[in-house]
Write a structure and sequence with these properties.
- By secondary structure, the protein is mainly α.
- The protein is built from two helices and no strands.
Length: 97
């Protein structure tokens, strides 16, 4: 009885297994194509990265030079913010005589 039920389910099981294998095969094919599509992008990033690093270094040098100029760095917000001024002296209460 149980073996008859298993035998009756076998065609559906084989169909499901066949569909699953087809989907897995398609997924593996897409996975194989993905790095091939990404390689040109990675090559472009490798070519651009040194240029971007150089551009950032020039920008940092420029900000450093501007922040050393008197008045310009503070006006442009490039220099260090001015520290807090000296605290005003505390008033001592008068003594009543």
């Amino acid at each position: 009885m149980a073996s008859a039920q298993l035998a009756a389910q076998l065609p559906d099981l084989l169909d499901n297994l066949s569909g699953t294998i087809d989907r897995l095969d398609a997924t593996v094919d897409r996975l194989d194509r993905t790095p091939a599509l990404a390689d040109p992008a990675f090559a472009a990033y490798d070519r651009l990265l040194p240029r971007l690093e150089a551009l950032i270094a020039v920008g940092e040098d420029l900000f450093g030079a501007l922040s050393r100029l008197p008045g310009v760095g503070r006006m442009a917000g490039l220099g260090a913010p001015p520290g807090p001024g000296p605290e005003p002296p505390r008033k001592r209460p008068r003594r009543k005589s």
